[in-house]
Amino acid sequence: MPYQHILIAIDLSEECHPVMLRAQELAISSQAKLSLVHIVEPMAMAFGGDVPMDLSMLQQQQFDQARERMHGFASRYPQLSVDNRHLVYGQPRQEIHRLAQEQGCDLIVVGSHGRHGLALLLGSTANDVLHGAPCDVLAVRLKKPE
Ligand code: AMP
């Protein structure tokens, strides 16, 4: 069965273009719908949830910046309609799974740095997304920066 709806998770770095291109090839060959998601991690989460100050303004700025970057990224792929771009607050694994389920996606595509050694112990988003995923997951190998 060809895939019908592919969800691409991007961290908005330049590294994500190969992930995007791979997902696009797959979408063309399966005639699948494509959706894009970026998760904005709340600052309190990044600081361990124990910050004694109001972060709401900073979080709004963080969200606005992510929206601009998402727009810049997605504008290179005109076939990705605005309705299929999602910007969500939360924890990447949880939100990517939730969105995949909610949108009826049958494949999630993420980038993978192919970590080993200590970096592997620290974990990766690709690993995280794989565990408990509601559908297939494709990890596109990312090249190390030169
Ligand atoms: P990482 O393990 O953090 O180096 O990320 C590997 C891949 O996970 C990226 O190439 C993206 O496909 C995905 N990813 C990481 N962070 C996010 C995020 N905040 N939102 C959506 N996808 C992400």
TrEMBL record:
Query: Which domain of life, per UniProt?
Result: Bacteria
Location relative to the cell = Cytoplasm
State a GO cellular component annotated for this protein: cytoplasm
What is the first-listed, main subcellular location in coarse terms? cytoplasm
Q: Which residues form the UspA domain?
A: 3-141
Which SUPFAM superfamilies does UniProt cross-reference here?
Answer: Adenine nucleotide alpha hydrolases-like (SSF52402)
Keyword annotations: Cytoplasm
Q: Does the keyword Transport apply?
A: no
InterPro entries given for it? Rossmann-like_a/b/a_fold, Universal_stress_UspA, UspA
Q: Which family does it belong to?
A: Belongs to the universal stress protein A family.
Its quaternary organisation is:
Homodimer.
Q: What is this protein called?
A: Universal stress protein
Could you tell me which species this protein originates from? Pseudomonas cavernae
